[in-house]
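Lab notebook, bench 4. Still working through the backlog of constructs that have no structural model yet. Next entry is a single chain of 434 residues. Request: give me the C-alpha cells for it.
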Amino acid sequence: MQTLTQLINGELSGATTIKISEGLDTFPGQLFELTDTLEYLDLSSNKLTTLPDDFSKFKKLKVFFASDNCFTVFPSILGRCDNLQIIGFKSNLITHIPNDSLHPNLRWLILTNNQISSLPASIGECSKLEKLMLAGNKLTALPKELADCGSLALLRIAANHLTKLPEWLVSMPGLAWLAFSGNNMINQIKGESFATVNIDQFQLRQLLGEGASGTIFKATSIDVNNQDEVAIKIFKGSVTSDGFPEDELQTYLAAGHHPSIVKLKSVTELDDQGKKGLVMELIPPHFYNLGKPPTLNTCTRDVFDKGFKLTDQQLFEIATSMASVGAHLHERGIIHGDLYAHNVLVDDAGKTLFGDFGAASSYDKRDLALAFHLERIEVKAFGFLLDDLLSLCSADISAFDELCKLRNLCLSENQHLRPGFNEILTELTLLRSS
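Model written out:
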C-alpha cells in the first residue's frame, strides 16, 4: 500500500499499481500524472462519492477497486474506460447504475452490499462479462438483457428480493457457479437437528483460515472427559459476496451426511443476540487444498502450483468423490454454487473432503424444470473441475480420451447434452474398473 504523501512528492512516478486508503474524500489529482502507466488502482476504504469527469484519461487502467466508499451512483465515466476489465464497488451506498456506465469490455463486476434495486438493460452489451457479484442488494427482478451475456460463468444474486429465477437465466449456456439464497423464493429445505452448544465450552486455539463468510479456528473442548480437537467457524454476521451466513448454516445442516463432506458436529451460540457458528470435524493435517482461487487474470478459473501433478488413481478418486457429492446434494435440492478445486481438500491417496457452503442455495425439487437446469449448471462447474484434473495428469493415463469426452459433455453449451451427476458417477465407475 502506498501513501498520499508519496504520491504528492512524486515518489510513485511510473507506477503501474497504486493502492491508497487514507479516508480520502476527494480523488487525488496527482494520480493523473500516471495516466501513461497505471494499470491497477485501488482506492477502497476511503470516503469518495464521485470520480472526476476525465477519469477515462487512464488509458491503460485494467483494474479499479473503490469498495467501502460512499458512492450513491455508479460513475458513468467508467463506461468510457476502454481497457477497464475489472471493477469493484463493494459496500458503498449505490442505488442507481446509469445505462451508459457499463463498458462492453467488462469481465468482472463487483457490486456486493449496496442498495441497487434494478440493473440497466445495457448490461446485455457486456458480452465479455464472466463474473457478476450482486449479493446484498434490493433487486426484485433481473433484466432479460442479461441473457445476452454469453460469457457469464459466475453469478451471485443472494440476499436480494427476488421471487423467482427466470428460465432464461438458469438455462444460460455459460453459467457454472450460481448463488441465490436469501431471496423470497419457495424452497423445501429441511435441515437435520443438531445440538446447540455455547462457544464458552471451547478454547479457541490457532487460526486455520478465513473466508468471505467467517473465520475458522482450531479449538478444544474444555470438558476434561471429552477434549477432542475440532474446527469452529465463526460467522462474520453480515452479508458476504455469497450471501447471508445464516443461509450457509441452514444449507449445511440440510446437506446431511456424506463421506466426502466435512462432518458437522454441532451448532454453537456465540452471543445472546442469536449469532451462531459451526463446530466441524478437524481435518487431518495431511490434507491440502487441491487448487488455489482464481486470480484477477484467470477470473473464474482456479490456478495450481507449478509442477503439481496427479496420478490416475488420485484423479479417479477425486472425480468420483465430487460426482457423488453433487448427486447427494441435488437429491436434497441443494446447489453448492462453489464447486471449485480450491474448495476441495485431498490427501496423497486422493481421498477427498469438501465443504464451504457459503454460496449454497436450496431449491424446490418439485419444480422439475428448475431442478434439471440447476443440476446442469453445477455439472458445468464439475466439467471445469474435471478439466483441471486432466490438466494435472499425464495424457497416457488410463481412459484419458474417455475422460476428455465426459468433460466435453459436462461443458456442453447445450444443457440437455450434459449428464446428471448420477450418470457421471456411473460413467466414472465404469471407466475406473475398465
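Notes after review: Residues 327 and 421 are 5 Å apart (CA to CA). The helical segments are 4-8, 167-170, 245-255, 312-331, 368-391, 400-410, 421-433. Flag for follow-up if needed.
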